[in-house]
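Notebook, p. 212. Picked up where the previous page left off. The plan for this session was modest: take the two constructs that came back from the sequencing core last week, fold each one, and keep the raw output in the notebook itself so nobody has to go hunting through shared drives later. Recording the first one now, exactly as returned: residue sequence, then the structure token string.
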Amino acid sequence: MPLPQSGDHLVSPRTGYQHHGLYLGDHLVIHYQGVSAGIHSGQIAITTLAEFSQGRGYRIQHHSARAAHLPRKPSIKI
């Protein structure tokens, strides 16, 4: 599976739903943890690609309307 590029929309299968995140680069993904985080539910988290996919793999969701002229570098510093 090819490594995504910064800014790619990732989708990882879960039981009953698809989990979404944005690839930041350096094997990091930003995503909404929802209720899976227990006491910290509702958090936006930055995790590794492996933690995001939880061994279930992922796919890159391509969007035809993506602006080709925009830079693919992350706009936040981690």
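Okay, moving on. Second construct, recorded in the same format:
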Amino acid sequence: MPRGRLCPPLSHTLLPPPQHFGTDADSVGQLVAARAAATDAAAVVLTKHDAGALKRFFLGSTAKYLTKHCDKPVVVLQG
């Protein structure tokens, strides 16, 4: 099957990488949600890892943020 027959080649659908983003969970979650909307993604797929209760309390969870705020379907896999 010729490349790109069912969908355009990936190189034509990617946006340039962001120049700057924050490191807290909300900032990363906001960035991912914005990119999903900008690219009209079918869904957002990410892995979740156990960061520990104390770290999660102070840093939050990107997966938790996305499941509450992203307009696209979110699939969270246990990593």
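Notes on construct two before I forget. Helices lie at 25-38, 53-59, 62-69.
Flagging for discussion at group meeting.
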